[in-house]
């Protein structure tokens, strides 16, 4: 992308360009991702960088350090930038959950590294867990735990659609009445692990940015028993220079196995970057190849 295309992405707050570059403001020393909703600076004050680290180094070199910026912000607003950003993030989290986004998908949309981190943040900011907040909103999430060859899986749904498949945390509990969609998913997964099922039919609802959804759709089109590299997947969705962003979207896939991100491998065939672990990825690929051969 040239600088003009990047500037247009900033003006449009284009989430699909997050991870590809950041922009910095010379007059303030602030840098942010393209989708940042803050007031847009003058174009002549904007610089573009490939990584946050390069932006920080360049902007500090202009004499505007993060410390100076934080001090100026505290004097003007009476609180630190971190406090403000956390409050905005919490409001966005509540808005997402109240709007029907699952806990798993909300944690991914808000760029938390893990669901447990999202829980800790939500409890610290609001004094209750995301599940407790969902109950208050009348949008309770259904959960079913399933023992599998990969370990115990946590299956979740909301409003009749599957919203998440991931490894369950230690001590995590399922619900008493999981609902028909999770019962259907359980049966499909058991058939899949036996090598009998090649395509899932259960209705799903995975929340993400338009770019993430494009990647997840392409993942679902990789044939059973076959693999594709991150670079090939980037080319498939029409973004050949976005292999790293594609990898990030794969890592944030909320529907393990159902959306087969395990079928994406490194350029040298290495098994990298799977949420359930490399051993699980190897097991799934071996099982699929064996079943496809038979």
TrEMBL record:
CDD domains: ATase. Its main location: cytoplasm. Its cofactor is Zn(2+). Its EC number is 2.1.1.63. SUPFAM superfamilies: Ada DNA repair protein, N-terminal domain (N-Ada 10), Homeodomain-like, Methylated DNA-protein cysteine methyltransferase domain, Methylated DNA-protein cysteine methyltransferase, C-terminal domain. The keyword S-adenosyl-L-methionine does not apply. It is found in: Cytoplasm. InterPro entries: Ada-like_dom_sf, Ada_DNA_repair_Zn-bd, Homeodomain-like_sf, HTH_AraC, MethylDNA_cys_MeTrfase_AS, MethylDNA_cys_MeTrfase_DNA-bd, MethylDNA_cys_MeTrfase_DNAb, MethylG_MeTrfase_N. Involved in the cellular defense against the biological effects of O6-methylguanine (O6-MeG) and O4-methylthymine (O4-MeT) in DNA. Repairs the methylated nucleobase in DNA by stoichiometrically transferring the methyl group to a cysteine residue in the enzyme. This is a suicide reaction: the enzyme is irreversibly inactivated. This is Methylated-DNA--protein-cysteine methyltransferase. It comes from Mesosutterella porci.
